[in-house]
Predict the 3D structure of the following.
Amino acid sequence: MKRQKRDRLERAHAQGFKAGVAGRSKELCPYQTQDEIRSEWLGGWRDAQEARSVGLYR
């Protein structure tokens, strides 16, 4: 069960990163009601924003 949970969280982080690289707003997070998964998605989004700010993505 732990592996399934981790996979879901990793997927949410990756989706958040992709959304951040694409320039989407964090308000468009698809996990509004699931706090733990939303936190991972936002973490990915923040990582992407940081990567964009240092010039890794446009």
Remarks:
- The helical segments are 2-21, 35-53.
